[in-house]
């Protein structure tokens, strides 16, 4: 049973930077390197959307158009941790951010249906 714990969400001013972390543990099937790790976000009244994903095996990364060039997803395999570096933050980035783990098939699609395990979320507010 995979467990994901996010951290790093705070309130920041527009144009600021923030780094979210997601610590993963409890891999029962396969290994850490067999998963796609993704970041999703959901703003009030809106559907959850995929932000970025990384295939832990090969390191390939994928981004939503809305965050390309501003956000960077990375991983520390030794710590089983995935990060989301967020630069040039905008008010429209305000949302609850969730870390998720799932099938490698979900990486390029950034669709939550491919992700089986979810963290509790961390709030990011940009004003």
Would you write up a description of this structure?
By secondary structure, this protein is mostly beta strands. About 5% of the residues lie in helices and about 50% in strands. Strand 5 and strand 6 form a beta hairpin. The model has no long low-confidence stretch (mean pLDDT about 90).
Morphology: globular
The biggest sheet, with number of strands, parallel, antiparallel or mixed sense and barrel status, is:
7 strands, mixed
- Strand residues, percent: over 45%
Classify the secondary structure makeup into a structural class.
mainly beta
What's the average pLDDT? 92
Number of E-type strands = 11
Listing every helix as H and every strand as E from the N terminus to the C terminus, the arrangement reads: EEEEEEEEEHEE
Outline the fold blueprint.
Blueprint: E1 3-7, E2 11-12, E3 18-25, E4 36-42, E5 49-55, E6 61-63, E7 71-76, E8 81-86, E9 95-102, H1 106-109, E10 115-118, E11 122-126
Features:
mainly beta; 127 residues; 1 helix; 7-stranded mixed beta sheet; 4-stranded antiparallel beta sheet; globular
Short overview:
The protein is mainly beta. The chain has one helix at residues 106-109; strands at residues 3-7, 11-12, 18-25, 36-42, 49-55, 61-63, 71-76, 81-86, 95-102, 115-118, 122-126. The termini are far apart.
């Amino acid at each position: 049973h995979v467990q994901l714990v996010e951290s790093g969400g705070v309130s920041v001013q527009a144009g600021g930077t923030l780094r979210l972390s997601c610590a993963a543990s409890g891999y029962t099937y396969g290994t850490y390197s067999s998963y796609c790790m993704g970041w999703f976000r959901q703003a009030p009244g809106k559907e959850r959307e995929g932000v970025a994903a990384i295939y832990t095996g090969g390191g390939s990364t994928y981004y939503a158009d809305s965050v390309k060039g501003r956000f960077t997803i990375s991983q520390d395999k030794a710590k089983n941790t995935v990060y989301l570096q967020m630069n040039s933050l905008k008010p429209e980035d305000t949302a609850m951010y969730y870390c998720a783990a799932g099938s490698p098939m979900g990486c390029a699609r950034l669709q939550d249906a491919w992700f089986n395990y979810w963290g509790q979320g961390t709030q990011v507010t940009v004003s």
